[in-house]
Amino acid sequence: MASTPMDIDDASPAAATPSLNITRTLGANVSSTAVVSDVISLFRPTKLFRRDDIKEGKPQPHILSIDFDDPGELCMTSESDETIQLYSVKEGRHDKSLLSKKYGVRLAKFTHTSSSIIYASTKQNDAIRYLATHDNSFIRYFEGHEGAVTNLAMHPGSDNFISCSIDNTVRIWNIGTKQWTGKLYLNSPYLSAWDPSGNIFAVASPTSGSILLYDYRNYEKGPFSIFDVLKARGPADAEAAFRGWTKLEFSNDGKHILLGSRGAGHFLLDAFDGSLKAYLKKPGASTRRLAVGETEGGTVESSGECCFSPDGHFVLSGARSDLVIWDTLTTPSGDKVLDPVHVLEEKRETAVVAYNPRFNMIATADQELVFWLPDPHV
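The line above is the sequence of WD40 repeat-like protein; the predicted structure tokens follow.
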């Protein structure tokens, strides 16, 4: 496998694509996935997917979101041309295109069944749609939002999910019924995330500069804790505490919260008291995507250009170029600034980033999807 982006395998949907030979621990005779810290510096762009169904002269659509199913064997993108694209991770190939021309599509998420997904509408109304991917048929519509949905977060252990919207509500849903089961009224509740236990969820409100934590069993009583990002911003300017937020995520060990920003860095917060553990300083320019809820100053809205590695040890981030990696176990400088431990070369913009939950494999995108694998020959 070549180690430079210029030589990566170009795999348009119609092209013949060799297997990526990804393995995990499946039995005594099957090789296991390596420890993340052993391979994190070895990732290289391995396969590029370029849509070949786009008419000549037309630009490639923007990829709005990336998600993996629970087994890590399928990768899904939602795209600005109102399509959903499905890819086989193990085979390294494009599997299927699903059209949503009538309703539009963004923020596509797998349920805990790999053959069904939910996604937010962008046309006609602001409903969330529940789709069976095997025949592209709708199972249910989740209606109630009166403004664009800005975030969808699946419960880690069940098919309940949270939706956030510019209508200043957060809604909690059970996938078995079309009526929301809970509703919170908040100022700009644009991002949400579940802790790994599924007992706590967080909601991020950029205009109030706060992250609110709720007990899932008693959320009607209000947040049990409120983290003040302005207070915890460290060396970031005050403006970064009130705008430009792109991602909210708990680490899988439950110790940290990642608040992504399109500013000069991301915020790594203590999940228990909201204090700043580190300001993850970016070495170069951020992506050109809009932050959640923004309407001016970019191309299309971000759904998250940063994420934790599955073990919570590292944070990965896209940028105008390159893939940037921070070690969360490293002690930051006196002013809480933490510089990257690795900057992996990538000449394309990396505006959306996702780490496979089961394999050492990363997906990045802007207008083309790229699979990354560790190169043992580096």
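Note on the example: The chain is about 0% helix and 40% strand. The domain at 60-303 is CATH 2.130.10.10 (Methylamine Dehydrogenase; Chain H).
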